Amino acid sequence: MTGGRSGTRLYPVTTPPRREPVILLAVGLVALVVSAIGAASLGTWFMEVLAALIAAPILVLTYRRFPLTPVVYRLILAQALILMIGGHWTYAEVPAGDWVRDALGLARNPYDRLGHLAQGFVPAIIAREILLRRTPLRPGGWLSALVLCVVMAVSATWELFEWVAALIGGSSADDFLGTQGDVWDTQWDMAMAAVGAIVSLLLLSRLHDRQLLDLGRRDAWIRASRSGTQ
Questions:
Q1: Cβ pair 137, 93 in contact under 8 A
Q2: What pLDDT was estimated at residue 169?
Q3: Closest CA to 117 of 48, 191, 178, 179
Q4: pLDDT on residue 2
Q5: CA–CA separation, 76 and 122 (whole Å)
Q6: Phi, psi (rounded to 5 degrees) for 156
Q7: What residue ranges are annotated as transmembrane (predicted)?
Q8: Cβ neighbours for 38, distance < 8 A, ≥ 6 positions apart
Q9: Integer Rg of the chain from CA
Q10: Residue 2 dihedral angles phi and psi, to the nearest 5°
Q11: Mean pLDDT across the stretch 102-109?
């Protein structure tokens, strides 16, 4: 971790070891296989985990050219696990959700709400990172507003995807939709995504900024080392 001719440390890099993304990927792959075993419906399972199946190779292929901050990788794994659990049991039948429903006297299994809360919580930090690293935007109100818009666009796109699935699959798509008889399910889903995004920005923005700084320092050190300058 020394650079140039002085032999002194160029930047105090504090990002986790590079093996962490590999460990997270391994955990995700094992969880994916386990979630498929004995799934209530393999068709529903596939639809639920499709986003994770698409994201994983993209993250692997872009890791060297555009590595993300540790918090983003961890959040992506967390959301993938939520998708896999929902895919294994279907969102309306997740046992933990049934327990919460019975304990609190709710009318429905709330696991679907958790899934859509995560659908806002996780993409908010992903969008924040891409916008900060690829546009002139800086932390502040405009960035947060645009992140929220991106999250709502993602949520709306997902709802359209569910609508198309319902048109194609008919009643067989009920487990995938997870409406549980709620005519306002789509609106609730988007509202939960918005709440998730707002909470995520409030809780994680400072941590995210610190990790972005560390990532920038690491990248600068790598570039300086390659050029042989300080």
A1: no
A2: 66
A3: 191
A4: 42
A5: 7
A6: -65, -40
A7: 21-39, 45-63, 75-94, 114-131, 143-168, 188-207
A8: 88
A9: 20
A10: -115, 155
A11: 92
Q: How far apart are the first and last CA of the chain?
A: 12
**Cβ-count burial of 41 within 10 angstroms (0-12 exposed, 13-18 middle, 19+ buried)?**
middle
Q: Which helix (H) or strand (E) holds 207?
A: helix 185-227
Q: Which two tokens stand for residue 41?
A: 């419906």
Q: What is the pLDDT of residues 160-181, one digit of tens each?
A: 888 887 777 665 555 555 556 6
Q: Which long-range contacts (CB under 8 A, 24 or more apart) does 220-224 make?
A: 220/10, 220/11, 221/1, 221/3, 221/10, 221/11, 221/13, 224/3, 224/4, 224/10
Distance CA 76, CA 126 (A): 9
Which amino acid, residue 99?
W
Quote the DSSP letter at residue 147.
H
The 10s digit of each residue's pLDDT in 50-86 is 999 999 999 999 998 999 999 999 999 999 999 999 9
